[in-house]
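quick one, 501 residues, struct below
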Amino acid sequence: MTSRTLRQSQASATIDHIGEDLLQNIVGRLPATSFASAACVNRSWNLVCDRVLSRPKLASACSFNPSLQDAVEEAVNKVLSDPIRPHFAIASVAGYYYEDALGDARQLINAALGTHVPVIINRPHGIIGRDAISDEFKEIEWYNPIDEIDAIMLIVGFLPGLKAKIIPLLKQVQPRAVMIDEFVTDIRDFSTSVSGCNSPAAVIMMSDSCYENIKDAIEKLDYAMSPETVVVGNPSSQFRCTNDAQFGTSAAVALVFAVDMNKPPGIGETQFHAVLSSGLSPVGPTYKATSVDGNNFTTKITARREGSGESVDGETILNQAYDEIGDPDQYHALLIGVTKKREYSIGQENVGCMTSLAFHGVPWSSQGDFYVPVGALKTGDAFRLYHTGSTTALSSAAAVSSHLRSFNQGSNNTTDGDKIEVFGGLIFTSPDIFSLGQPDINSTPFLDNFPGVTLGGNFCSSVIGRRVLTPYVKESHEQMVRCCVHYDCSVFLIMCYTPLA
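---
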C-alpha cells in the first residue's frame, strides 16, 4: 500500500469514525486556506466540503492600516477567515500615494488569492464596508485629496454555477480613443461560450474618467445587451486588474458574470438586481432645443417649452429654475437630463435606434448664460433640469428600503416555495455634498433589510446603473427611456440565490 493510499484510507476511516455531519461541522469552521487543503484530502472529504460551500457567498473587509502591505494582509485574513473559494475580488484603495500603489495592491491580493482569480483594484472617492479589526460598519468619503486617508476595502465572491472574467476596453493608437465595438463583442463572445447566450447575467465596470467617450461605451453596451443584463460600476476612477499586464493599455474594465451552462447538478440560480436611490428632483418643464451654438468647450442653447411655440434663451431657463427652487442664497448644483434618440451598431451589424436619458453638469456662468458640455445636446433633443434635495433623497431611500423589504416578505418566492436568499451586495454612491448631509443614508436601506449580510462599496462622482429598479419614478417621459449613468444617487447591486427544490 502506497503512502498516498494509506492516507486516503485513514481519511475515509476518519469519516466512518466521526460521521459526515460532524466532519462537515468541523471543516465549516476552518479558514479558507485550511478548508482548501481539507477538500484535497480525498473524494469523500471533497464532497463534504462541497456541501459546506453549496451556495454562493460574499465576504468583505476594510482596513485602515497606514501600511499598504499590512492593510491588504488584514483585509485578506478577514475575508478568508471562513470557508470560501474566491471566484473574483474587487478592492478599493484610498491614500497610499506613491508610485503604482494600485499595482502593488494588485500583486499582494493576487499572491494571497491566486493569480487565476480575476481581481479589479480601483481608487474611488471613499469606501463603504466593515472594519476588519473592530467589525464596525463604516462609510468614509472625502471631497479633496488632502482629506483622503489610507484605507482599503476588499470584497471576495464565490458564485457556483457562474463564471467570471475581466474584459478590458482597450485604447486605440489615437489619443483618447477606445475600441468600443471590440469591447462589446468580447463580452458577447465570453457570455456565449459560457452560457450559450450573448448577454451575460451581470457586469461590474470600472473606467478612467479622463476618457470622455466612456459614456459612449456604456451607452453602446446598454444597446447591445439584453434587458435582463444588469450593469453597475464606477465610471470615474483609476484602476488596475489582473490581466492588465501593461499598465495603461485599458480605458475601462468589465468584470463579466455569465451563467455556466455546464454547472454541476444541485446548484440553484444566482440572480442580480440593481436598485437606484436618487436625490434628483426635476425643475421646471421639459424643453426641446431649438438652437445649439457650440465651441471647443461648451454649448450655448435656446429652447422651446414643451407644448409652446415660443423659444426662450438659456438665461431665462436658468432664472425660472432658480425661482422654482427658491432659497437664492443657497448654492444649487444643476444637472441637465437630455432625452436623446441615437443610432447604434456593433461592427457590421444593422443600425438600430435607442432612446436614452443622459445627465450632464450645468457649468456656472457669471453672465447667467446656460451652457452645457460640447456634444451633450443636439437641436431637437428634449431636456429638463434637475437639482439635488435632501427631502427627495430621504424619500427615495425610504422607497428603496420598502422595495428591498419585499425580498424578506416572501413576495419573491418561487413557485415551488423556495424563497430567494440575499447573500450579499455592492453599493456605488455619489451623494451631493451640499444636500445629502444625512449620516449613513447610503447604506441604510440595505443594512436595515439584510442585517449581517455582506455589503461593500465605493463613493463615486457618478454611478453606472443599468436595469435599475426605480419604483418611485413618476414622470411619464422617463418611463420608456433608458439611463445608465446617474448622479447624486446610490445604486445597489443585490445578489440573490434561489436553491433548487
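The two ends are 43 Å apart (CA to CA).
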